[in-house]
Structure formats: C-alpha cells, structure tokens
Amino acid sequence: MKIISYNVNGIRAAINKGFIDWLKSANPDVICLQEIKAMESQLDLQLFEDAGYKYNYWFSAEKKGYSGVAILSKTEPQHVEYGTGIASMDSEGRNIRADFNGISVMSLYLPSGTNAARLDHKLEYMDMFQNYINQLKQDIPNLVVCGDYNICHDAIDIHNPKMKGVSGFLPVEREWIGNFIASGFTDAFRHMHPERQEFSWWSYRANARANNKGWRLDYTMVSQPLQPQIQRAVILTEAVHSDHCPVLVEIES
User: Fold this and answer.
1) DSSP code of residue 194
2) Closest listed residue to residue 219, CA positions, set 80, 110, 59
3) How many CB atoms lie under 10 A from the CB of residue 249?
4) Which of 221, 211, 206 is nearest to 251 (CA)?
5) Chain-centre distance for alpha carbon 244
6) Among this protein's residues, is 148 annotated catalytic?
7) pLDDT tens string for the chain (253 positions)?
8) Catalytic choice (148, 157, 187, 218)
C-alpha cells in the first residue's frame, strides 16, 4: 500500500502548477492532502476521478480559503471519519480518516503557532489530539497518521538547530512529538533513514528552497503493529507545487 501525504498550500493553485499530472505519475494508492484551502463545491472532482481517484473525500474549514484536509483513494474505504469531535479543530478542517481492510489512514494538519494565541491553540489541540489517538488505537491498532505536524522533532530535521525560539522547533513542541512517537508510533522516514537530513518545507523567502534551508514538518507516523511492514519511506523533494513537498510510505498490506 503506497501512501503519500502532501500539504499542497491550496489545491487549486497546485492544480494550476501541474499537480494532476504529477499525481498520475506518483500513482499512490492513497494520498492525504493538507491545507487544501477550498470547499468541495469549488473543485472539479472529475479531474481527480480521471486521474484514477474515484473515491475522494474533502473536509474543509468553515472559513473559506483556509486550512482543510482531504483523502483521495483508488479503492473505496469501508468508512470515512470527518474530524475528531474536537470542536475547536473540526471547525478548521484538520483531520479526516479513511478505514480500509486492515489499515486506517488519517490526514492531519496541525496548526502553526504563528503568534502567542495560536501557539496556545496549537498546544491545547495537541494534547486533545493525543488523547483522541490513545482511544482510537484501542479500536483501530493499524493506524497511519500522515500529515503536516508543523514541528521539527530533532536537530537533524531543521537546517539551523539554533532556531530554538521559533514555533515549530520549540522545546514543548519537540517534547510533544517525541511523546507522540513514544505512545506507539514509528516515524517511518527516520526509521528507514536514521542519519539522513532531508526537509519537506522551505520558506518562500530568501531563496530558501534553492539553498535547501528547510524544515522537516511532514511525517508518516505508523502505529507499532505496522512497523514490521514498512517497506519504504521517502521525501519526494522533486515535487514543486507548494512550499511543502510530499512524503511517502509503503506498507506491506
């Protein structure tokens, strides 16, 4: 099962930059999207169906042009769960999950902590999300939580580890994602590549991507029962439809 996660920073803008042709070429079984910035009614769904993704599910933010997640699949899931029941985040369209036979895939978009109020919002949600996942794993042990976590876990995941006062690399955020992994998940990319430094997001400023001054914010977190089935995990840096690039995991199903 080939799963890709991609923060597209606006699905309509990504389509205009060749996203559909790229999707056909990448050919995942399931793709999780974040920051779609669109309502389903604003999209030409036939584009995705023609690319092979007859089953596409969109969970938009209430605020137009903001946040939102989606899952596109070649096969029909047994169940799709929109949101988590956490009202403060469901209104921002930050979680969608599709359950397949033997594996459940979630698209997650954690908030960024761009100011003090949003950082408090992010930290509150992270705690609630951890509690939600703890409960979910009791019913669905085979879980892949893909998405933009808006956190660099370790120094290897950021081009400048001295940036300790910036949200995304704060000690409290790094501690949370470490605890999330310790609660029963494997960071698939780091599991397969313990010492490789690659990034999945670059600022649009100061020619950051060309200079590879990036951050690894996007993860495929695989629950422990599935760890032995991880076949491959890579960062697809050649995709340039967004300030993020996609991350991929292949799991023997």
Assistant:
1) T
2) 110
3) 28
4) 221
5) 10
6) yes
7) 999 999 999 999 999 999 999 999 999 999 999 999 999 999 999 999 999 999 999 999 999 999 999 999 999 999 999 999 999 889 999 999 999 999 999 999 999 988 888 899 999 999 999 999 999 999 999 999 999 999 999 999 999 999 878 999 999 999 999 999 999 999 999 999 999 999 999 999 999 999 999 999 999 999 999 999 999 999 999 999 999 999 999 999 7
8) 148
